[in-house]
Amino acid sequence: MPGSPPGDAVLRVVLELLESGSHDAVQIREVVRRAHVSPLTIYKLFPSRDELVVAALQQWLTVNSCAPLAAPAPGESLYDGLMRVFRHVFEPWERNPRILEAYHRARNGPGGRKLDQQAMGAIEPVARAILVGGDPTYVDDVGLILTNMAYAVVGQFANGELDITAILPALERAVFRLTTNNEPAATQARTRRGGYPTSPAQLDRQESTDQGDSRR
């Protein structure tokens, strides 16, 4: 864009490289070539390549996964509210999976704390508003479980163990279990277990017996 500050052109090029390639595609020589700036200009604005990538991801988050999120509407269920937050965050990443890969890598590197702070700063107030009035221990547990679950599925995706389109369904299952009454299912499991061994020692003895029977 003619007349835009050099930093804007640089970050725009970095995002293009991240979207079309990967974290490793962001090379200073290529950014210099595409943004039509000097290496000195880049290093004055962004002292390291890691800071350059983090700054570009912060810009992307501001208008996508961390864009302003509406407060809960009256009567919105806990399940609907939490899933609204997760969809707000992850649907843009579904459309830009390489950005999510870059985010995962960058948040584990130098300057990654900035990305975590930006994400939590955008999401946490709305999530807290959705959970307001709940038992404090329950609220803390939900936050702990879902935060760790989100990081886990993103890590699985980045490692090639989970398809990008499987992230939201996995989170939805977790949210459903945390916001519904699980006692009937738990009771059914306990009832059907009946007389089966339940302690590790009993299970070991049962397995040894079964193996002995199979050799006869």
Structural description of this entry:
This protein is mainly alpha-helical and 216 residues long. Helices cover 73% and strands 0% of the residues. It has helices spanning 6-20, 28-35, 39-45, 49-63, 78-95, 97-107, 112-131, 136-158, 167-179, 183-193, 200-215. The protein contains 11 helices and no strands.
Defining traits:
11 helices; mainly alpha; single chain; elongated; 216 residues
> How many beta-strand elements?
0
Spatial extent as radius of gyration = 24 Å
**SSE pattern, N- to C-terminal:** HHHHHHHHHHH
Q: By helix and strand content, what is the structural category? A: mainly alpha
State the shape: elongated
Indicate the low-confidence ranges by residue numbers: none
| Largest β sheet strand count, sense and barrel closure | none
Amount of beta strand? under 5%
Q: Average pLDDT across residues?
A: 88
Distance between the termini: 81 Å
Continuous helix count = 11
